[in-house]
Amino acid sequence: MCWQFKIPINILLNFNKNVLQTALPKFDSVFSVDCVIFGFEEGVLKILLIERNEEPFKDWWALPGLFVGPDEGIDYAAERILYELTGLRNIYMEQLYTFGDVDRHPEGRVITVAYYAMIRLSGKSELQPVTNYAKKAFWHPVAELPKLGFDHSQIFEKSLDKIKRKISYQPIAFELLPEKFTLTQLQNVYEAILNKKLDKRNFRKKMLNYGILKELDEKQRGVSYRAATLYKFDRRKYAKLFQKELSFMKE
After folding, report:
1. N or C, fewer C-beta in 10 Å, the chain?
2. DSSP, res 12
3. Coarse DSSP helix, strand, coil percentages of the chain, rounded to the nearest 5 percent
């Protein structure tokens, strides 16, 4: 007598899955995160750097970057790495680009995911690494940037190109300014990022015509020259009404 047994399909699927999991080898992956943080202070566009305390590139200046843990998500790793190497917390960062040249790391194949952010330096000037990987963290003028460790000069250039393009169609300049600012301060941000002089009259006319600046009944304090009127960026009005591109690339 021939006996036939019908095995439920879900048991077969689970069995095949377990067999595959047992048979397939596990991959070893090596990823890192590098953070490109821009700030603006006293008319100068700055970048956040560290002085490395570990080989390779010990004593070199570099972007804040470390390896991603084996059980760690990329976004979480970016927050952790920035905090450990600089002491900064609660910084919103966006993924910029993935750098995967075979020889970008002297110890082997390491793929890095670059994150970038633009922040106000008010209250964020004091930096304190909480790990021995970095001797110190500091803000450095973008215009005077030396050669950095690894391929970090390339990562920086990619980030700078990104914000140069983005500033032409999104109001990212306001992320670098205090809540209340003058039109001169606003123009200084655009000129620092674009690395070019803008006509003062045309710039002010264009910005005011967009209707996204709220003029305040306040003026600068503590200045030796004629105090200028302060403005605020009207985020609600921008979100509701603004659809055109902010283009400052052409006069």
Report:
1. N
2. H
3. 30, 25, 45
